[in-house]
Amino acid sequence: MDLGLKGKWALVCAASKGLGKGCAKALVAEGVNVVIVARGLDALHETAAELRQLNPEVAVRPVAGDITTDEGRAAALAAAPQVDILINNAGGPPPGDFRDWERDQWIAALDANMLTPIALIRATVDSMAQRGFGRVVNITSAAVKAPIDTLGLSNGARSGLTGFVAGLARQPRLAGRNVTINNLLPGPFDTDRLRKTVQAAAASQGRPIESVWDQRRLAVPAQRYGTPDEFGAACAFLCSAHAGFITGQNWLLDGGLYPGTY
């Protein structure tokens, strides 16, 4: 299927690894020019080289910086002639007990997982509407649908973004101009973050990492973890010309882990 995206420009945040990289790969394969942003310089340039090899016909512009800062956002936005597709993504805050979190930790979580996506949406959606095409995809978490008690910082910040998007996406001046805003909710995907989470859990339980890894994998009805590439494929479809009637939605990608009907 041709997704109708050739020649578009995308800004993909936290794109040097994991789910952000999966999204960037899927978009580049469809002929989308990309600005990829990450803080780690080496991994960023390695990913840029990989993307250029995947499709030499597109422009790949790496921007090293912290997207949660005004300066980082300005540099990322300045790297593209326009932003037709915005993929908001940021690493989740650390797990823990809410009794141990002070105000600074809450503010950092809100900055990364709620306020930064909103700032980038604000900077791009009106020009998308003027051009008559725009796609915003926010990578949030399955914990928005089924909160995890140790991920309170993430639960709170990402749920705040979800509530904001639910109202904004339905504004006729956006939806009526072919600008869609949706959220992708990843469950257990094989990423560095999942491996670090499993490692921490194994250490706290005094168990081998492999044992915890397999236990969590077998709890998924699909009997496996998701891959960044299949996550990227779902993201690319939401960005496509065929997805203009999908907006304000929360797509859960969790291998069937969530047990509810709705």
Automatic annotation (TrEMBL):
SUPFAM superfamilies attached to this UniProt entry: NAD(P)-binding Rossmann-fold domains (SSF51735)
Pfam families, per database record: adh_short_C2 (PF13561)
Family assignment from sequence similarity: Belongs to the short-chain dehydrogenases/reductases (SDR) family.
UniProt name for this protein: SDR family oxidoreductase
